[in-house]
Amino acid sequence: xxxxxxxxxxxxxxxxxxxxxxxxxxxxxxxxxxxxxxxxxxxxxxxxxxxxxxxxxxxxxxxxxxxxxxxxxxxxxxxxxxxxxxxxxxxxxxxxxxxxxxxxxxxxxxxxxxxxxxxxxxxxxxxxxxxxxxxxxxxxxxxxxxxxxxxxxxxxxxxxxxxxxxxxxxxxxxxxxxxxxxxxxxxxxxxxxxxxxxxxxxxxxxxxxxxxxxxxxxxxxxxxxxxxxxxxxxxxxxxxxxxxxxxxxxxxxxxxxxxxxxxxxxxxxxxxxxxxxxxxxxxxxxxxxx
Amino acid sequence: xxxxxxxxxxxxxxxxxxxxxxxxxxxxxxxxxxxxxxxxxxxxxxxxxxxxxxxxxxxxxxxxxxxxxxxxxxxxxxxxxxxxxxxxxxxxxxxxxxxxxxxxxxxxxxxxxxxxxxxxxxxxxxxxxxxxxxxxxxxxxxxxxxxxxxxxxxxxxxxxxxxxxxxxxxxxxxxxxxxxxxxxxxxxxxxxxxxxxxxxxxxxxxxxxxxxxxxxxxxxxxxxxxxxxxxxxxxxxxxxxxxxxxxxxxxxxxxxxxxxxxxxxxxxxxxxxxxxxxxxxxxxxxxxxxxxxxxxxxxxxxxxxxxxxxxxxxxxxxxxxxxxxxxxxxxxxxxxxxxxxxxxxxxxxxxxxxxxxxx
Amino acid sequence: xxxxxxxxxxxxxxxxxxxxxxxxxxxxxxxxxxxxxxxxxxxxxxxxxxxxxxxxxxxxxxxxxxxxxxxxxxxxxxxxxxxxxxxxxxxxxxxxxxxxxxxxxxxxxxxxxxxxxxxxxxxxxxxxxxxxxxxxxxxxxxxxxxxxxxxxxxxxxxxxxxxxxxxxxxxxxxxxxxxxxxxxxxxxxxxxxxxxxxxxxxxxxxxxxxxxxxxxxxxxxxxxxxxxxxxxxxxxxxxxxxxxxxxxxxxxxxxxxxxxxxxxx
Amino acid sequence: xxxxxxxxxxxxxxxxxxxxxxxxxxxxxxxxxxxxxxxxxxxxxxxxxxxxxxxxxxxxxxxxxxxxxxxxxxxxxxxxxxxxxxxxxxxxxxxxxxxxxxxxxxxxxxxxxxxxxxxxxxxxxxxxxxxxxxxxxxxxxxxxxxxxxxxxxxxxxxxxxxxxxxxxxxxxxxxxxxxxxxxxxxxxxxxxxxxxxxxxxxxxxxxxxxxxxxxxxxxxxxxxxxxxxxxxxxxxxxxxxxxxxxxxxxxxxxxxxxxxxxxxxxxxxxxxxxxxxxxxxxxxxxxxxxxxxxxxxxxxxxxxxxxxxxxxxxxxxxxxxxxxxxxxxxxxxxxxxxxxxxxxxxxxxxxxxxxxxxxxxxxxxxxxxxxxxxxxxxxxxxxxxxxxxx
Lengths: 290, 359, 265, 390
Hints:
Distance between the termini of chain D: 68 Å
Number of helices of chain B: 14
Largest interface: B-D, 47 and 53 residues
Low-confidence stretches of chain D: 1-6, 14-25
Oligomer: heterotetramer
Largest sheet of chain B: 2 strands, antiparallel
Order of helices and strands of chain B: HHHHHHEEEHHHHEHHHH
Strand content of chain D: 15-25%
Mean pLDDT of chain B: 82
Number of helices of chain D: 12
Shape of chain D: globular
Strand order of the largest sheet of chain D: 7-6-8-9-10-13-14
Mean pLDDT of chain D: 87
Number of strands of chain B: 4
Largest sheet of chain D: 7 strands, mixed
Radius of gyration of chain B: 21 Å
Strand order of the largest sheet of chain B: 1-4
Number of strands of chain D: 14
Structural class of chain B: mainly alpha
Low-confidence stretches of chain B: 1-5, 354-359
């Protein structure tokens, strides 16, 4: 039982982080290697807001979320916009560089020691009993709920929302999209803000659940394994990929060797790349696209 | 290949001239002067500067091999640190287990590198660009894991110590000796690369990089050449790792983080894609830059007062500079270099002749 | 009144190759104008210049002016032009392969357009192309060539254009499909009072519905006139409509000859 | 174009300043410090350096030692071996320091030790775990002031568990997946056998982990009633929290890193014990007060209780340099260090004494703290217990 819960929680974390990669990739064919850092930044923004509005959680949360959205937009407008038309590698490298920059800034502003936004928000994180004697912490439960919520709304948005349809259109054929009067820059900016938002939500919740420090970055990095396993251009894929990776990781910890837990995602990834390079739900021509 | 403008009045009169590494007299003179400077450097340099130079040479070897793979064969790889680690660990393990001398371990690591090259290269037969990059990245983690396991299982909790290599009776510890060894290593790597690029395979790689399908239709065996590129580059990289192990006198997984890969990719990009000179410039820049920033920051009044912040600044600055280069100078350092060069060559005219203006 | 006025337009690729060398023409509102010419004559370039699509392949309008409803639109961004009312139906990649037909139609609708307006346009489109109504849930990638072309035109109309640019309408389509499409176009013109500029290699297709035509070669307009006049013109007869007349001269010769005529005559 | 100019200008400026930077302090004790001020372990290794700097600044303000100021040359190694090696080379060869101080991950030891041997300059570990080389018989050049040290820690911990435990001990062990921590935990496992404790589960947890629950689940399922963790604080505390979330109600003892005092107050858990060699600030000894207001004055970014390690390092440095006199070269400093005997003023259980063959300390004192729900304050679970080092 507990195993199942653990798997679900981890999967939710990965899913929340992975969809950020997917969102950006499908519109601009860029792998955002700074996603981990951006999520971490989101968490720190929450921490900052929490220290400013001590014990007024709601405004703090709202401020933090707004800030993280605008961060995403800024990243695009200031940085990635210039990289449109450059070669993919250059764009990826830009995101890597951005990541390094962010890491430095975070240490600069909030120092390297661990922070606990939960306390500064004045929340507590009691553990709840769920079916079969298994237990789950409130924040973890929140993560699962959030993942469901985010994915639900994303699916809805992309399928029915006008901007969603535009987004998919822009992803498939930017030229035609522009011809049809779709403002590509707006679309890309939207994608970046959405991905940063989801990433930050993940970051915030993880930070609330188990403290906040630099290690967040590596978690973010690990989350692109699910994204690729599922197929970089498919949200559904990201969801399934997260499930697969999470379950294999948890099972490896439980039955084989805890040490494996940080290679397992990549082993799964390699296996997938050998068998089905374009991922579970990915479209095949993506291979030649990049 | 060479898009450098030449002083007017220089014509190639035969194919030999086309193949000559150093076209003009002036080129030869410059190279001669430069190498002289390199030879004299140790006499004036402080040990710390020597160490920096050695680091630069080590980096150049790695950067050149990566440039071969990425800049010419057009295969993105994020497994570079993994390969360096593989080379280093080959030395470490062989030395620890069998106490093998360097003239055994170096070829061994080259061999291991070649084998890994095949493994790293296999995905490239099916994957391109991003997907390839990620698969190599995954392999990086696997290599590191294995290395780490060896370290702990054998109880080398603070890394594997390696004695300096024995040349006959004397053992190489002196900084100057290392300077020359690594200088030779870097120079020979450069020569190897230069010559490789002038062979059939070199041309094939460029063809593949520019357009894979077209290359295939031209009858180039894509698979073979891709693998070849990976094998060669990887074995050079592994040797670089081995040299690193001997130079530092120890091996430990922490030394081969993902950040190392990023640094090497940065060298290739900052230096300028598709140019060996770029690789060298990039290696020098990326290696020395942090120290320059550091000393610049420490030069500020009362710097020590808030040291921990300063170093965070240093860390961020590296990212910032990379961004600036990517945004403002896509051609990289080599682009700047060429601009300066052509400025002087073409003076007083401002534009170079259209032919070969862009590579 | 003239809707689009092209004056001494000159387009340069890669800062070196001049594809269009100072052409001028004007299109009056609610007209169908055909731009004829063989490969490389510069037709498509002209079209791209008008729709603002040059930037992508490193080309730009170096001389002259494109005036749409009194505004200069040289080197303007595509989506701006679309907002102005200039919409292009491209030669290939004309639909979004992974979107359903209805999504293909919704995608281009600019924000700010009310749902009611959207529905109005949709019904309008479906009434022009009833086939699409049945294919609403079909993925764009699975449509046949003809259906694709219809969808392309349809989604162009969803942008509520004033000037519709159609590139190589007939390319790779069966004659029967082509004639149907042409019919639709002229209907659309009639109903919506659109202005249409079609670029064609096959003159008969174009001249079938066009009111006025221009013939381009090597970046120059070498000939223009009403559809009837063009259809009657001996050169057109010979080289575009492919009717026999006297002894056959090689294509290149005729070009020279025509140039001479233009220069010395 | 503008940007390019900027790039060029910036590079030039840096180059120039770099030249200026290479200045030497003429009449001052030059001490080299390299540590992880940024990077993964900076949370643990940064504060000691800050503390040392704080202490030295106060010394200098008070006129220095033997009338000479102390100049600390601090360099950051980001916990990267090669960076550390380069730093050491630079400090030793360019700034020719007479003592090298290291506060970083264990992976940086090898290269730095190698450099210090090459230059024959003493190396003092401060805030970084003590290597075996400083235990008797000690390596000539290596010294260590750090509180924690492989071997003795596990011994003390297990002894405490033995005394505190009511019934039979079912021991769970937690390490981080870095060689050092794994080694120590393996040692603890061995020792537990000899003390008639059954080790029911051992978890080795990779440094960055999204969710610690899977590991905690195993510990719980193995129903351990005592869990001992000797790892970086993150791993220790996050595993504990995960266990509590699984509603595991038994005892957890972890090594008391510099963060411990703050964290105990945060967690408020009666069955979380921390064992360590440094006294907590809640004892409010005069020295604690002294440190606290020094921190307040200098506006350090870390809480006062994290300064202890650095402060002790400062005490040792002061007395060593006093002995060494002026001018002090590396040799003199080393000789002085070998006979150092520092009164830690209650920061530790007793004085810190070094001899020719013992560069760790003559006796290592341990104290156990825990949170007391009733008093809602931190209390001593066990006062100083001494272990002779031989």
